[in-house]
Design a protein that fits this description.
The protein has 938 residues and is of the alpha/beta class. The strands form 9 sheets. It has a 7-stranded mixed sheet, with helices on both faces. Strands 16, 17, 18, 19 and 20 form a 5-stranded antiparallel sheet that branches. A hairpin with a 5-residue loop joins strand 1 and strand 2.
Length: 938
């Protein structure tokens, strides 16, 4: 009986392995159709090295196995590396599965009394909460089995001081760097805060997904540790066995310790008072092992970015954050944890591996904690969709609390957003909660964020015009379209601009390089002056991304730098290309690694193209497998596609640099490796393409310079003519007629097309007050050219000190006002009222001044008080397009189209303050609707 039972069990085990092999082989064939390992798969084949299944492919595999065997596998299965291991896990899980039900809610969202608004450092912010509510829940940490651990501010602080004492005992001094290589868990939070308690600088680096990768992982990250000058690495116990190896790569390392070892010490340590300008974090851009770039972020930087994001999102301590994001990544570390810490938001956190193994646990965590804020990269939403499509619905799942579902860190797919909204609508998630965002480590984490409740906004533009000129215009009849996703407008206090190759700003809806500046912009990269010089650009910082602005929103169109975004990580191709180039059979220096987005899911695939002279199928198979091994060793990621091509197939510049984007286009078109004619013809064609492309770019830049010179050659004589006319003509009505004619002529000759709408709304003889948005230095010129009557403009008092301006403005009837001294406001108001009482009409720019960034600011009350008191008609006028013609802070004009929209006059009903407020609000609503720019006060 025993023998028969054993034989039956053996047969059952073999059948289970056979079914698993079939599932794994089908998935491997989908990733790389026809690959030899998938056709000859054995139970001992390794999922990563033999089949190239990365973490996301493993997550898909887990979903398929659970569906096929009706089991629920533990998170640890993600570390299983063979079919045999998967079979053992399935056997253990069989018979234990139960219907998936949403867990009971855990609600702890009582609001706090105030926030640490005066705190200058992260530790001061934490101390404020520690004093105010030490027992408030700060963290809910999920382990691999779904169990939670509640951690209060006081509980975390006690463990952090243990780490600080251990660091002090190992001679770590303030401002020195300490590296963290820990998975998501209480140890990570305690270690990070303990480093700050010691006054040192945390350096997070990501931990390996599997123990088998530890050696290579440490070897590659030694360059980051060496660049940071790190003397202490806090890590997992098994990493300590490789201390000798790591010290060879990072010579400054003195101690490799665990959190437990640090906390075992009894040495006393005094609190260190950090300054706002002290470094609080070195954030190394993921994958930057070849040329480490450690973004320097101070306490002031981090708090400025956190506060700006909270202001835009309307965050309060009643919110709840749910996160699976890795803590070595800025989105998980700064947005999720440090943001939650500052705003006293309970943070429910699970491991990224736990999410990859069970994507639906993310949704269950949101349900359980009634989370209001959560999100991640686009691939995370895709994983959830796959899990939802392949598994039974979650009973009782309620996502109605989720008001901010941000999507960032990698290209956002419109298709993913639409499918996610549709699929989760039955669970209470509103489409308006979905929020594409944009940020980068060099700003902290967030740069552009929409207002909550707006929902995703898509822009469909014509493919042909965009490809040829970079203009994001509406498509023509029958023209193919491109769809770009709005990432919202810059956070309060931040600015974004789009520039061309010469560094000049591009007009609205014109693609270019994205640059930014703001209160949390990094000062540069740690101990890397060359990379810092490349980052900084005359007070702005280069993002390395391309995009365009429309109605104040930023639309991302691509990347300048050769970065592959895979699973939310930045992967730099240089190390990988060098490693592949060392493989026998591959031509050194003739390898291109690039990202290629999947059209359906938006997930970027890692593609490696290598030139080889290997001819036989066996030899080519050997080279492909060696390339896949190199990808795993160097990047901890398998290649999604390996393509071997004949010599001279990969495109290069004239100086021999790999043209990755051009090679990627050939790959997409299926033309890589196709016969390309004689070498001399290829060289001639490439030279011609390079020359014409460079010439076209230079001619376009030259044309813009020539136009700017031509425009000023028009504007200067026009200004002089207007000045002479104002000086010699006896009547102000004559002077205005002359000024209008001169302005219209100058605009016509400069290629400025002025369209006027609603001119019938403008009173021609009745006294009125005109109010308009202010976007450019040429606003007054445009209004003068467009409107058929005279107005007394309000001018800043500084102009009265300049002879040329003083004569012109005095003769045109301008009223000088003081912009910066509130004590002068009442006297200026009386002056305006006297002019109105004399029967004159007055033109106001109620914003007072303008900035270079898009948006309508707050309106000062002077014009509206004057209208209410005098009973004058108030005429709102919206200017659209002047900002693109001549942007603030630069003197580089461009031709274009301007629209002047005249609204219906508003009649005052009373003389009081409340009526002035009504006039302001109604006129501002009209201007916002017509000017095409966002409300900076919204």
């Amino acid at each position: 009986m025993t023998d028969r039972a054993g034989t039956a069990a053996s047969r059952d085990g073999q059948e289970l392995e056979r079914q698993l092999i079939d599932i794994v082989a089908r998935l491997a064939d989908e990733i790389r159709p026809g690959s030899e390992p998938a056709r000859s798969l054995s139970p001992t084949a390794r999922l990563d090295r033999d089949l190239g299944l990365d973490s996301m492919a493993r997550a898909e595999l887990m979903v398929r196995i659970e569906q096929a065997f009706a089991v629920e596998l533990p998170d640890s299965v993600l570390s299983e590396d063979t079919v045999e291991g998967l079979a053992r896990a399935v056997k253990v899980a069989q018979g234990q599965s139960t219907p998936r039900r949403a867990p009971a809610p855990v609600i702890e969202t009582a609001a706090t009394a105030g926030l640490p608004e005066q705190a200058a450092t992260l530790t001061a912010s934490f101390d404020w909460h520690l004093d105010a509510h030490p027992d408030r829940a700060h963290l809910y940490l999920y382990d691999g089995d779904g169990r939670t651990r509640r951690i209060t501010y006081a509980g975390l602080d006690g463990r952090a001081w243990g780490v600080a004492r251990g660091l002090s005992a190992r001679s770590v001094n303030p401002r020195q760097t300490v590296a963290l290589m820990l998975p998501t868990g209480e140890d990570y939070f305690a270690a990070f805060l303990g480093i700050l308690r010691r006054g040192a600088v945390p350096v997070p680096i990501y931990p390996p997904a599997r123990a088998s990768q530890l050696e290579e992982h440490l070897r590659r990250h030694g360059r980051i540790l060496a660049n940071a000058g790190t003397r202490v690495l806090i890590t997992v116990p098994r990493a300590r066995r490789l201390a000798g190896l790591l010290r060879a790569e990072a010579p400054f390392i003195r101690h490799i310790v665990t959190v437990g070892e640090l906390a075992a010490g009894r040495a006393d340590v005094a609190a260190v008072s950090a300054a706002a300008t002290d470094l609080a974090l070195l954030q190394y851009t993921s994958g930057s092992t070849g040329d480490p770039k450690g973004v320097m972020l101070t306490h002031a930087d981090l708090l400025a970015n956190i506060r700006a994001m909270g202001q835009r999102l309307g965050v309060t301590s009643s919110d709840v954050f749910a996160s699976w994001l890795p803590l070595y990544h800025d989105m998980g570390l700064i947005a999720a944890w440090l943001g939650s810490l500052y705003f006293a938001i309970p943070l429910a956190a699970m491991s990224p591996l736990g999410f990859l193994g069970k994507p639906l646990r993310w949704l269950e965590m949101i349900h359980r904690h009634r989370a209001t804020i959560s999100g991640g990269p686009n691939f995370g939403y895709e994983l959830c969709l796959r899990a939802l499509d392949s598994q039974l619905p979650v009973e009782g799942l309620d996502l109605s609390s989720w008001r901010v579902a941000f999507n960032g860190a990698e290209p956002v797919s419109p298709d993913t957003l639409e499918r996610f909204a549709e699929r989760l609508a039955p669970y209470g998630l509103g489409r308006d909660a979905l929020m594409p965002v944009y940020g980068l480590a060099e700003v902290g984490v967030g740069l552009c964020v929409p207002r909550p409740g707006r929902g995703p906004v898509f822009d469909r533009v014509g493919h042909e015009r965009f490809a040829s000129s970079g203009q994001a215009a509406a498509p023509g009849p029958g023209e193919p379209t491109l769809t770009f996703v709005s990432c919202g407008r810059p956070l309060p206090g931040y600015e974004v601009r789009i520039v061309d190759v010469t560094g000049h700003e591009r007009p609205e809806r014109q693609e270019g390089d994205i640059e930014f500046r703001g209160p949390s912009a990094t000062a540069g990269y740690f101990d890397n002056p060359d990379a810092t010089r490349e980052l900084l650009h005359y007070g702005w910082l280069r993002t390395g991304d391309r995009g365009y602005m429309a109605a104040g929103d930023l639309y991302i169109t691509g990347r300048v730098k050769d970065v592959i975004i895979r699973g939310g990580r930045n992967v730099y191709p240089y190390d990988l290309e060098a490693a592949v180039g060392r493989i026998p059979g591959v031509r050194k220096g003739c390898v291109a690694a690039f990202g290629c987005a999947d059209a359906a899911s938006g997930i970027e695939r890692l593609v490696i193209v290598a030139e080889t002279r290997a001819a036989g199928e066996d030899e080519q198979s050997r080279v492909r497998e060696a390339i896949r091994d190199a990808s795993l060793d160097v990047m901890n990621l398998p290649a999604d596609d390996v393509l071997l091509v004949p010599p001279h197939s990969i495109l290069k510049t004239s100086s021999g640099k790999i043209r990755r984007s051009a090679t990627c286009e050939l790959y997409r078109a299926g033309r890589l490796g196709a016969p390309r004619g004689a070498v001399w013809w290829q060289g001639l064609r490439l030279a011609w393409e390079a020359a014409t492309g460079s010439l076209s770019m230079r001619l376009r830049a030259l044309g813009e310079w020539l136009y700017a010179a031509y425009a000023w050659c028009l504007f200067a004589p026009a200004a002089l003519a207007a000045w002479v006319a104002a000086l010699v003509l006896p009547y102000r009505s004559w002077r205005w007629s002359a000024a209008r004619g001169i302005a219209r002529g100058a605009a016509l000759l400069a290629g400025i097309d002025i369209e006027v709408r609603g001119i019938e709304n403008l009173p021609l003889r009745e006294r009125c007050i005109l109010v308009s948005n202010h976007a450019s230095y040429i606003d007054a010129l445009v209004l003068t050219a467009a409107l058929p009557r005279a107005f007394c403009y309000l001018a800043k008092k500084e102009l009265s000190r300049r002879f040329f301006a003083r004569v012109l403005l005095r003769r045109m009837g301008a009223i000088y006002v003081e912009r910066f001294d509130p004590r002068e406001a009442s006297s200026d108001a009386r002056q305006v009222e006297r002019v109105i009482a004399a029967g004159e009409s007055v033109a106001f720019f109620p914003e007072g001044t303008f900035s270079r960034g898009y948006g309508v600011g707050a309106f000062h009350m002077g014009a509206f008080v004057a209208a209410a008191r005098s009973g004058s008609l108030l005429v709102p006028v919206a200017l659209r397009g002047t900002r693109s013609l001549l942007r603030g802070s630069e003197w580089f004009p461009r031709p274009g189209r301007v629209r002047v929209s005249v609204g219906r006059p508003l009649t005052p009903r009373d003389t009081g303050w409340a009526e002035a407020v009504r006039l302001r609000d109604e006129s501002r609503r009209y201007i916002l609707r017509e000017c095409g720019e966002p409300d900076l006060m919204g």
